[in-house]
Fold this protein.
Amino acid sequence: MIADAPAAARLNAPPDTLPARCEVLIVGAGPAGCAAAITLARQGVDVVLVDQHPFPRDKVCGDGLIPDSHNALRKLGVLDEVMTLAQPAGHVRCIGPRGGQIDVPGTLAVLPRKELDLVLCRAAVTAAARMFAPVRFAAPIEEGGRVVGAKLTAGEATHELRADWVLIATGAVPQALMAAGMSQRHTPSGVALRGYVKNPAMVGRIDKLEIVWHRALSPGYGWIFPCRDGVFNVGVGIADSHDEHRDGKLTKKEINLRQVFDDFTRVYAPARELIEGGEWISPLKGAPLRCTLEGARFSRPGLIVTGEAAGSTYSFSGEGIGKALETGILAAEAVLGGRGAGLSEAQVRAQYEAGLLALKPRFDLYARANKVNRHPWLADLLIWRAKKSERLLRRMSGVLNETSNPGHLISFKGILRLFTE
Ligand SMILES: Cc1cc2nc3c(=O)[nH]c(=O)nc-3n(C[C@H](O)[C@H](O)[C@H](O)COP(=O)(O)OP(=O)(O)OC[C@H]3O[C@@H](n4cnc5c(N)ncnc54)[C@H](O)[C@@H]3O)c2cc1C
């Protein structure tokens, strides 16, 4: 698996060898943190990358790589390596409550995160980022109103590491965000759970990324994504897992995700067949999602929040690998601007935040599409319309492939056109 032995040896360097200083400290070695580390280290920046887990590590995910992931992986120069390991697919199959279905064309693939994140982490280390694990971010070090490093922990030991910049790329779990004083909302936007089932008899029968809407799964959906070797990633996700009350407080809804999963196998025969005829090779595990670029401050002096920690996952579909990579690259490019183009600290952060805000229309489009999760009959209507209209199908494919302007689709006229053309 790990072809470059010297790089492999440098993964998970022991915490007691952490340096006292670096240019950029990146906390979290998922897609966002690794994308930033690769981009910075390739430009000669002295990067330290830390993660609370040694790699390779599992990450609860659907493992679906949609077109934005492909584009970002290409930009990082690792797409070919990823595709030698991944299961490619040419369509997302959308299945409505009444069983109607439509196949939306796109450049897609499925690769378990244990493998994807290892490719990314190894690329960061090959680019000369220094990676240490298991190391946890405990708190920022601040001087004169600016973050100048971080307090890190490894077991009982603590370590202070000084850095020009600290990038928080810790995903949907809120602890690091809260410790850094960046969390605006510690509850997630949604929750999801997944497991891996091996069932070689279903190979060829499920060869697309299948997404299923049904009243029993609302406000969410079920999925089956085909990996390699007869293995399938199967799961359910719930958007809007928390209710907002009049006093602004959020409380967890009474949702039993395990029950939703059982309902998925009840209402969708291929899911039932997959599981009854297959073998669980990894049990169901749940995880939170942070969506729509909400829930955290993006930066403060000396510190940048990137990836899902900044809410970079799409609501509606729960896809976030691509935008985690993109926002990690944006953070790195902004920091590089401070080095090369001589941007001030405040200008670096302004450039980064402007980059995130430029992505906002896409996030807003997916937030609106979240209506389908709340009202699954809308999926029936869309599928029915798309079956009759090549143009509508092309439009849906344009959204998936990010070739159409999201601004056109979130206008009232754009939505009306979805149902009328
Ligand atoms: C069930 C489920 C299914 C999903 N399916 C898909 C899908 O099919 N396609 C898709 O594109 N997206 C999917 N997503 C979303 C996707 O998983 C995220 O968008 C993506 O992982 C975000 O990447 P990230 O790098 O920001 O964070 P992460 O991948 O979460 O990485 C964060 C890293 O930070 C580390 N960390 C956290 N706290 C600390 C700390 N205090 N100190 C040190 N390290 C820390 C973690 O160990 C982790 O390695 C799914 C999510 C869920 C929950």
